[in-house]
Amino acid sequence: MSDISAVKDKYAAQIDSTNDLRTLDDIRVAALGKKGEIGKMMQGLGKMSIDEKKVMGPALNGLKKDIAAMIEAKKENLENAALDAALASETMDMSLPVGAPAGTLHPVQQVMEEMAVIFSDMGFSVAEGPDIEDDFHNFTALNFPPGHPARDMHDTFFMTAPEGEEKKVLRTHTSPVQIRTMINEKPPIRIIAPGRTYRCDSDQTHTPMFHQVEGLVIDKGIHMGHLKGVLMDFVSAFFETEVDVQFRPHHFPFTEPSAEMDVRYERDGASIKIGEGEKWMEILGCGMVHPNVLRACGVDPEQYQGFAFGMGVDRLAMLKYGMPDLRDMFAGDSRWLAHYGFNPLLQANLATGLS
Ligand code: DAH
Q1: Cα–Cα distance, 311 to 83 (Å, whole number)
Q2: Which residue minimizes the CA distance to atom 3 of ligand 1?
Q3: N or C: which terminus of the chain has fewer CB atoms within 10 Å of its end residue's CB?
Q4: CB neighbours of 339 closer than 8 A, spacing ≥ 6?
Q5: Residue ranges of the alpha helices (H) in the chain?
Q6: What is the DSSP letter of 187?
Q7: Is the bond preceding 257 in cis, omega lying within 30 degrees of 0?
Q8: Cα–Cα nearest to 63, from 35, 78, 42, 34
Q9: Angle at Cα 134 formed by Cα 131 and Cα 135, nearest 5°?
Q10: Ligand 1 mean position to 175 CA, how many Å?
Q11: How far is the CA of 310 from the centre of ligand 1 (A)?
Q12: What per-residue confidence (pLDDT) applies to 325?
């Protein structure tokens, strides 16, 4: 028995003084391996008397277990220490600047983010709706009566539909998001809805897919002064300069009265200067939400009023950043993107400048 405790002490001392996993494994092999010391001691059992075996058998098994447990505990210690050392030496400084990113932010995305920043500063949130719409949301609820010629003006793309089912449309404007928002939310409402829109049209200033931002405010006591104030503040913030504007009467089925807003501009050689000058350029449509539209969404026009506006994002991007042809915007030419794109890590914000 004294042998056993001597063997145990010997290995305990070796395990204790080991500082690396490799030496520890050598100790394991020497003690517990097939040809190891404990195995040899166990072979000696064969030559013992039954009484001796009864004592030595369990004692040797216990020795084996004890040594295995000591090795396991030491292994865990060494592994933890190795992990701590790695964590300490392989730290990463998250505050270091990254290298120049390979991709750029598309000017349309940049402009939509600039608009979201400006309007969120005025208390608007961003709403979304589907690109594939039904007739109700795209037309009927917006006060386009069935068969009304205004529906044709939109050059609508119709989806195919099984016999007897209504054809869905690719939304011709972002105005259906107004309808979805008024149906799903209770006033007061203050949203903008940026997104893709589609019309069957293509030339230097029209593409079949284009982008709009819609705006909607519904509350008690809203009047046209609110509409004018919001839009005047918006254009000056967007063009990052004082911009003189005018509101011209217009017609949209979903607003009454309706207007278009023009900004003053002048040509300077090939470039366009927005804000001052002798000429006017139309940049958006707007108006007071028509009572029929409110009613279609379950909003009581006797209690609530509101205004709405809609503008083409692509054209505003062209005006602000001087891109000559709308079609280039969606051609996916990497040289164009490298030239007109924005650094995706520099987010638009009002504190340090939008662009
Ligand atoms: N939906 C109109 C269009 O695509 C734009 C528009 C005009 C939206 C006036 C509005 C609005 O919300 O009030 O031509």
Answers
A1: 57
A2: 173
A3: N
A4: none
A5: 2-17, 21-32, 37-43, 50-89, 107-121, 135-138, 149-153, 176-184, 224-239, 291-296, 313-321, 334-340
A6: S
A7: yes
A8: 42
A9: 125
A10: 6
A11: 4
A12: 81
Asked whether the predicted pLDDT for residue 355 surpasses 80, the reply is no
Question: What does the block give as tokens for 1?
Answer: 């028995």
Ligand 1: lining residues by beta carbon, under 6 Å: 173, 175, 214, 252, 255, 285-287, 308-310
Structure tokens at 303: 């209690």
Tell the residue nearest (CA) to atom 12 of ligand 1.
309
Average pLDDT, integer, range 4-8: 91
The tokens for 245 are 């504007």
Q: Output the CA 212–ligand 1 centroid distance in Å.
A: 9
Mutate to test the pocket of ligand 1, among 133, 153, 170, 214 (most ligand atoms within 8 A of CB): 214
Pocket residue to mutate for ligand 1, from 189, 252, 282, 283, most atoms within 8 A of Cβ: 252
Any idea where the domains of the chain sit in the sequence? 2-87, 107-340
Rounded-to-integer distance, Cα 234 and Cα 225, Å: 14
Asked if 214 and 310 touch (Cβ cutoff 8 Å), the reply is yes
Q: What would the pLDDT profile of 211-253 be if each residue is shown by its tens digit? A: 999 999 999 999 999 999 999 999 999 999 999 999 999 999 9
Residue nearest to atom 2 of ligand 1 (CA): 310
Indicate the CATH number for domain 107-340: 3.30.930.10
Report residue 182 as tokens: 């008024």
Place of tokens 């100790």: 27
Tens digits of per-residue pLDDT, 181-200? 999 999 999 999 999 999 99
pLDDT of residue 120: 96
The predicted-structure confidence for 276-313, as pLDDT tens digits, reads as follows: 889 999 999 999 999 999 999 999 999 999 999 999 99
Read off the tokens for 44. Answer: 């000696």
Distance 155 CA to ligand 1 centre (A): 15
The SS3 of residue 207 is coil
Q: Which two tokens stand for residue 84?
A: 């701590």
Lookup result for tokens 């295995």: 68
Q: Please tell me the distance between residue 251's alpha carbon and the centre of ligand 1 in angstroms.
A: 10
Q: In a 3-state reduction of DSSP, which class is residue 237?
A: helix
Rounded Cα gap, residues 308 and 314, in angstroms: 19
